[in-house]
Design brief:
5-stranded antiparallel sheet; 0% helix; 52% strand; globular; DUF2187 domain-containing protein
């Protein structure tokens, strides 16, 4: 995963965008404009729509 990727939080399906990365911590801005740092294993890259 890289900065700008759209991701989904595995636990509840919330969608967000990666803004920063520090090792295995990802700074995410979520669809409700809240931001947080999450571990890579809690995120899944959102696939592009056809």
């Amino acid at each position: 995963m890289k900065i700008g990727d759209h991701v989904i939080f595995v636990q509840d399906g919330t969608k967000g965008i990666i803004m920063e990365i520090h090792e295995n911590l990802y700074h995410i801005v979520w669809e409700d404009h809240f931001s947080s740092w999450e571990y890579g294993e809690t995120l899944r890259k959102q696939e592009a729509y056809p």
